Amino acid sequence: MDLDVSKKATTETRTVPNKTGKMGSRVSDAGKKLCGTNYPISICFIVVNEFCERFSYYGMKALLTLYFITYLHWDKDLSTAVYHAFSGLCYFTPVLGAIIADSWLGKYKTIIYLSIIYVIGHVVKSVGAIPTVGNTDVHIALSIVGLILIAFGTGGIKPCVAAFGGDQFDEEHVRERQKFFSIFYMSINAGSLLSTVITPILRGDVQCFGDDCYALAFGVPAALMIVALVVFIAGSGLYKRTPPQGNILLEVCNCIGFAIKRRFNRSKHEPQRKHWLDWAEEKYSKCLIQEIKMVLRVLVLYIPLPMFWALFDQQGSRWTIQATRMNMALVRMMNALLILLFVPIFDLIIYPLVGLCGIKITPLRKMAAGMIFAALAFGAAALVEVNVVKTVVDPAPAQNYLLQVFNLARNEVTVDINGANVYPEPIHYLMVTRWEEGKMLFILSSTLPLQASSPILNIYITINKETHECYDMVKERNAYSLIVTQNATGIQCKLVSVPQKWPFFCSLSVASGRYPDVSFTLNSNKYSGLDLGLLDFGASYTVILNKMEDVKANNVHIGWQIPQYVLITAGEVLFSITGLEFSYSQAPANMKSVLQAGWLLTVAFGNVIVLIVAEGAGLDQWIEFLLFACLLLGVCIIFSIMACFYKYVDPDQLDKIYLADSAIEDYDEVNMKKKDIQLQEEGNSTKL
């Protein structure tokens, strides 16, 4: 579910090399232990902090796409683009957080300060969801500012919290530290699972300001983030804190930059080097250069990986939009639930069975299989989408409105809108023109300014060769029903606005009038304004309400989304967890932070891919799903070819290589110092 931590990935990231390549010192004061164990008490505060923080993040994110569509009234493409822009920013900022923690403030202060920014972002986001606070522009501004602050907060602390938890253990307690990361990973998914269940309930089942309560649904995650900060600060007296010792990521970037500069500015007489990084030997240690070479071999394999995340992260955007057009609640929580089930199933059952079949299981093969499962998930999503679009009418886009005609006159009628023969065929008595026939979308006159909120609609109705004219007002993005009736005085028309919540919710529209009316109740909401005409004294009336379906009910069951969630979660287990373990096992201990930053950047670039496709492609949704599936299959082929040329590094040999290189450098350094002393003594003797 989350990419913050691997069970094995970050267990050795507490030491960094100084400029000479030697391992930095570490704070060794032991913290208080839980009774009878080697577990520090401080980890309890860290685990609770992570649970609350993940609850706040995923609880807010579970509603984000719906908030854009139903509250800010953005179309699905813009909502998808902003959602993935936010997700991408959340995975670009960890690099900034790592630099701040390692080079300036240390992990503890970085978590504190960025968590405060995180809380402020949640509060601003919640205030932006209060309808009485300003107009739509104010709501949009507050929402965007809040999301930016949240992105910097959650991304900044992402590389710090897990490593800070590992810092609490003594070096010899490796097994306890590994169990801590398992508990830490479970707390992440538990927080995600609960939040994706609770926050949609708060939005839909609680009414505030006369509508869905987004302010409360965003406010609860804000409160949980405040709790996370308070809990973390409460344990401050128990933490073991490693002071900042220089950022290895910056050291790596500087070394690569120096090598490139020397490579292109070299003298013609200088001999060639075996590897372009060897040009950095004049300034940087051979040990550091060798480690960077190992890391770059893994980073090259990362190049195709963003395409997987481009598919995976659409669970919160395109798949959420698809779910809202089906006939049950969202199933966003399924991924968190399935990941808790699938991890032990794969480890204890599937992997051993595959091994018994004589198939060699390697990390890169598992990652390639994960890509295939993700592609199959989007193939399943495309099949579901084809069936969903048959019964759902999308809201009108900007500068458009929707209109359907109910003919209650006793003869055929023809309807012209603003002088245009939009309905060429006569409309029979009691016949309803349907939106899905493609006759309902009208582009407003090109001479009408976009800022005009209520353009005049000229309606010409012809019956028995006589034309009658009606006037009414329409607004862009709205949907209307035109009801045509006939009495002794002639043709009458009534334009009724269809409630904006469709197609996501059940809705009812009624015509209002200036005569005595009746009131009725629907779903605990009282309605009035049904036009009965003039009621005479002494007469007896029977009112017959004829229910006409404006939009067909959502009849595609949400259960059809289960296969795509099962497939994408299986892909996550094979790809995400395996990828973290692989990348960390293939690099020296002090380079794991570099690879973590590279791994998180693949997620960021995956969201950038969705951002480009959502805004630029303009494809039907099912075609877009198939496009992503085909692209990932193509990338999987490329990745598999690259994997064939990759030579695995034995993790046990990495430390030996490191120690051997360090010993050689130390020996060379000692010899250089001896030579300097000898030359200095010879110089002094000459002077005497």
From TrEMBL:
<dbReference type="GO" id="GO:0015293">
    <property type="term" value="F:symporter activity"/>
</dbReference>
<feature type="region of interest" description="Disordered">
    <location>
        <begin position="1"/>
        <end position="24"/>
    </location>
</feature>
<keyword id="KW-0769">Symport</keyword>
<protein>
    <recommendedName>
        <fullName>Solute carrier family 15 member 2</fullName>
    </recommendedName>
</protein>
<dbReference type="InterPro" id="IPR043381">
    <property type="entry name" value="SLC15A2"/>
</dbReference>
<feature type="transmembrane region" description="Helical">
    <location>
        <begin position="112"/>
        <end position="134"/>
    </location>
</feature>
<keyword id="KW-0571">Peptide transport</keyword>
<feature type="transmembrane region" description="Helical">
    <location>
        <begin position="214"/>
        <end position="239"/>
    </location>
</feature>
<feature type="compositionally biased region" description="Basic and acidic residues">
    <location>
        <begin position="1"/>
        <end position="11"/>
    </location>
</feature>
<dbReference type="GO" id="GO:0035673">
    <property type="term" value="F:oligopeptide transmembrane transporter activity"/>
</dbReference>
<dbReference type="InterPro" id="IPR000109">
    <property type="entry name" value="POT_fam"/>
</dbReference>
<feature type="transmembrane region" description="Helical">
    <location>
        <begin position="55"/>
        <end position="74"/>
    </location>
</feature>
<keyword id="KW-1133">Transmembrane helix</keyword>
<dbReference type="InterPro" id="IPR036259">
    <property type="entry name" value="MFS_trans_sf"/>
</dbReference>
<feature type="transmembrane region" description="Helical">
    <location>
        <begin position="332"/>
        <end position="354"/>
    </location>
</feature>
<feature type="transmembrane region" description="Helical">
    <location>
        <begin position="80"/>
        <end position="100"/>
    </location>
</feature>
<feature type="transmembrane region" description="Helical">
    <location>
        <begin position="625"/>
        <end position="646"/>
    </location>
</feature>
<feature type="transmembrane region" description="Helical">
    <location>
        <begin position="182"/>
        <end position="202"/>
    </location>
</feature>
<keyword id="KW-0472">Membrane</keyword>
<keyword id="KW-0812">Transmembrane</keyword>
<dbReference type="InterPro" id="IPR018456">
    <property type="entry name" value="PTR2_symporter_CS"/>
</dbReference>
<dbReference type="GO" id="GO:0015031">
    <property type="term" value="P:protein transport"/>
</dbReference>
<feature type="transmembrane region" description="Helical">
    <location>
        <begin position="366"/>
        <end position="384"/>
    </location>
</feature>
<feature type="transmembrane region" description="Helical">
    <location>
        <begin position="594"/>
        <end position="613"/>
    </location>
</feature>
<keyword id="KW-0813">Transport</keyword>
<dbReference type="Pfam" id="PF00854">
    <property type="entry name" value="PTR2"/>
</dbReference>
<feature type="transmembrane region" description="Helical">
    <location>
        <begin position="140"/>
        <end position="161"/>
    </location>
</feature>
<comment type="similarity">
    <text>Belongs to the major facilitator superfamily. Proton-dependent oligopeptide transporter (POT/PTR) (TC 2.A.17) family.</text>
</comment>
<keyword id="KW-0653">Protein transport</keyword>
<dbReference type="GO" id="GO:0016020">
    <property type="term" value="C:membrane"/>
</dbReference>
